[in-house]
Amino acid sequence: MIPISSKIAILGAGISGIAAAKQLAKYEPMVFEASDSIGGVWKHASFRTTKLQTPRCDYEFSDFPWPDRDNSSFPSYVEIIDYLHSYANHFDVLKFVKFRSKVVELRYIGDENHREGKGEYGRLMTGHPVWEVAVQTNDDFDSIERRVVSKIIESYLLWKLPYEKHGLKPEHPFHEDYASCQMAILPEKFFPEADEGRIKFKKASKWWFYENGLQFDDGSKLEADIVICATGYDGKKKLESILPQPFTSFLDYNGVMPLYKSTINPMIPNMAFIGYVETVSNLQTAELRCKWLARLVDDRFKLPSVENMLGHIEKEVEVMKRTTRFYKRQCISTYIINHNDELCEEMGWNSWRKNSWLSEAFSPYTSQDYDEDN
What we know:
The longest helix is centred in the last third of the chain and has 18 residues, at 306-323. It contains twelve helices and eight strands. 32% of the residues lie in helices and 9% in strands. The chain is globular. It has a domain at 8-104. Keywords: FAD, Flavoprotein, Monooxygenase, NADP, Oxidoreductase.
């Protein structure tokens, strides 16, 4: 295979990958996408009825609004893919994407100190290769007021929806689900179908297959021709499969992936992780992190020392532990405004993005609030 040189490699052409390619376009990055299309999970893990679980105006790029952004309906996955294609075409990003190019291994060829986890983070653009990419082509904001609001929402949901009737009431409070991005919009007629007996629920800590379907730890059985394990994906396992040692051992720090500003692992040099940490609106925060990363690449600001970055991460983890037992999911929805404020301040932007203090206090933030023209 003939080696190809590029200053920046981007793994995956989903929402985060396309946003990163747009922000780093002047460096002509190479985007490696294993499939034959952009869109990530929206393209390859969606069903006919899959829809966005937020209004479209809450899921848009800051400089590319939806053509019908005032439409209050939740867009289908097809609409989202069309929107992403329109964005990529408008900013001429597709020319950077190498389709059917699966990254199978990363090799570190940089500073020996970093190989041992001892190096300090310097400039991201070193002027010489750091990684070889092998490609197969074919502060605590958990306030009393927030908990009161969460309790009101929880009480409303339990009154409005028959969770208790079907044995679906969680044993943990609503704010823990919100803080770990474990919310979802129910499909149409979900509970009416359950009331008719066409959807059944079963709680079990263990299950296994038997000749006619599934058997559970209480001895009950469920006959089934097809079993779909809708368990999501594990980004950490994907990283472990391509990163060399010792960097795979740096993916876990006190139980979580250590990411400064949800992007930089202080112990892995010249690498950024845009789409790893979740929020309620992944597109909005992914784009803002890409803008932050582009300015870091341009050397407009410096990262703290590795020690200080790890200290910052430790404080964030402790706050998340007090907020939800599901902190290892690495979701920062409860602290998203604070997170965005910190990114803005580090880029030299005013963290107040509205035109007045009244709007700051009572108006929700959207992607357009983080447009660079603002």
